[in-house]
Amino acid sequence: MKTLRKFLDSQEKHFHQGGALERLYPLYEAADTLLFSAGNVTRGLTHLRDALDLKRTMTWVVIALVPTVIMALYNTGLQANGALSALGKGGAEGWRGAVLSLLGIGVDPASLVGNMVHGALYFFPVYLVTVAVGGFWEVIFACVRRHEIHEGFFVTSLLFPLILPPTIPLWQVALGISFGVVFGKEVFGGVGMNIFNPALVARAFLFFAYPGQISGDKVWVAVDGVSTATPLARLADTGGAMTASWWDAFIGLIPGSMGETSTLACLLGAAILLGTGIASWRTMVSVLVGMTSLALLFNAIGSATNPLFALSPLWHLVLGGFAFGAVYMATDPVSSALTNQGKYLYGFLIGAMAVMIRVVNPAFPEGMMLAILFGNLFAAIIDRFFINANIKRRLLRNV
Question: Does residue 42 sit within a domain?
Answer without folding.
Answer: no
